[in-house]
Amino acid sequence: TMKNDLTCAVVRDLLPSYVESLTAAETGQAVERHLRFCPDCAEKHAAMVGPELAAKLEEERRELDYLKRGKRRGRFRILAAGVCTVLVIAGGFAAKIFLIGTPIQSQTYALRHYVDEENVLHLIIDCVNSAWAYHGWKTEETDGVVEISGRSVTVSPVHKEGWGRLKVPLEGVREVRLCGDVVYQDGVVIGSAAMQRCKARTPYVGDAPALGRVAEAVGLDGQNWNYITELQTGERPYRWTIKFQNHWGDTSAGKWMRYYYGPQMLALVDNLDEVGWTYTTATSSGKTFCEGVLTLEEADAHLAELLEGSGLDGRWKELKSVRDFAATPAGMQVLYDLLWEDLETMFYSPTWIETVPSEPSPDGADFLEHE
Question: Helix axis angle, 329-347 relative to 192-200, nearest 10°?
């Protein structure tokens, strides 16, 4: 495109020749462009060519002005549309985080709950993050199952409270679920620990990541104990061995495994036959290797003893294996309570800490503590 760089003085000198069509084509185009943008020169040109041609040139100039204004309006509309889009997205995002939120997840709250004398379940829910608030609690009951849900949002003047206080009458209710987790089942109040154990249950001892989740759920990782895992899955009996790497001053490691962790591990891994453990302990002559094994049959036999003296109703005593208890959250809670109460009884017994024999175990040997 040619640049329109003719001045008014030059155009006025060229106008007589332009009107007579005596200018070169390129010069004539330059003059025409100038006339479209310069009203003064256009007026002089109109006076020279007569009213009809002047009207035609004026119409062309107006069309050009209209196109220019349309172009400006188009740019404004595009800009306005972009700004509106940004505002809509920002408004939607703000509504999402401050007003609508997301469904509450069990790991985001701490729960205290109990059943009062009038058979009403009280739920005291506290958010673990002060930047979040809870709202929109809903309670729905279907065939004796109560579902409670709520939503979590960022704290704002609209939603300020990061807690919930709920009551559920239990007449005709066999199960209560809070944000997906069972908190009451068949007359048993379910704690978060029992529910996490149920979630970690796995069918196959050969799944190492799943066993890691089981170990975490039953609390092995929470004791700050260093250990490695060894699996025997080539042939029956399938064994899961925990090899403790840190030093022990007494034989309590074996008791924890035999009476607390081991039964739960057997309960939560469907085809696990045995749980083993090894550790070292201090003796007068140094450190001694110790080991132990708990079979599923031994765990079930001990469970039967605990049930016999527990005072629980007959429905629980009908269950024959730790694995039967792990089939439901209520059963897992009952098993957890039985094992923990038994462990506490032993813990306060004078025989909890025993003197380790001076001779190493037949299958082991003295060795240095692993650093």
Answer: 120
User: Do 334 and 311 meet the contact criterion of CB atoms below 8 Å apart?
Assistant: no
| pLDDT, tens digit, 9 for 90 and up, residues 311-346 | 898 899 999 999 999 999 999 999 999 999 998 888
Query: Where does residue 293 rank: exposed (0-12), middle (13-18), buried (19+ CB within 10 A)?
Result: middle
- pLDDT digit string (tens) for 143-173? 999 999 999 999 999 998 999 999 999 999 9
Which residue do the tokens 């609508």 mark? 100
User: pTM of the predicted model, to two decimals?
Assistant: 0.70
SS (HEC) of the chain: CCCCCCCHHHHHHHHHHHHCCCCCHHHHHHHHHHHHHCHHHHHHHHHHHCHHHHHHHHHHHHHHHHHHHHHHHHHHHHHHHHHHHHHHHHHHHHHHHHHHCEECCHHHEEEEEEECCCCEEEEEEEECCCCEEEEEEEEEEECCEEEEEEEEEECCCCCCCCEEEEEEECCCCCEEEECCEEEEECCEECCHHHHHHHHHCECCCCCHHHHHHHHHHHCCHHHCCCEEEEEECCCCCCEEEEEEEEEECCCHHHHHHHHHHHHHHHHHECCCCEEEEEEEEEECCEEEEEEEEEEHHHHHHHHHHHHHCCCCCHHHHCCCCHHHHCCCHHHHHHHHHHHHHHHHHHHCCCCCCCCCCCCCCCCCCCCCCCC
Confidence of residue 360 (pLDDT cuts 50, 70, 90): very low
* Position 182 pLDDT exceeds 80: yes
C-alpha–C-alpha distance, residues 293 and 276, integer Å: 4
Quick one: CA dihedral 127, 130, 131, 135, positive or negative? positive
56: which 2 tokens? 């035609």
Of the chain, the percentage scoring pLDDT greater than 90 comes to 52
State the Cα angle at 268 between 264 and 272, rounded to 5°: 95
Q: Cα dihedral sign for 134, 140, 143, 144?
A: positive
Per-residue confidence (pLDDT) for residue 120, from 0 to 100: 97
Beta-carbon contacts of 180 under 8 Å, excluding residues fewer than 6 positions away, are 105, 106
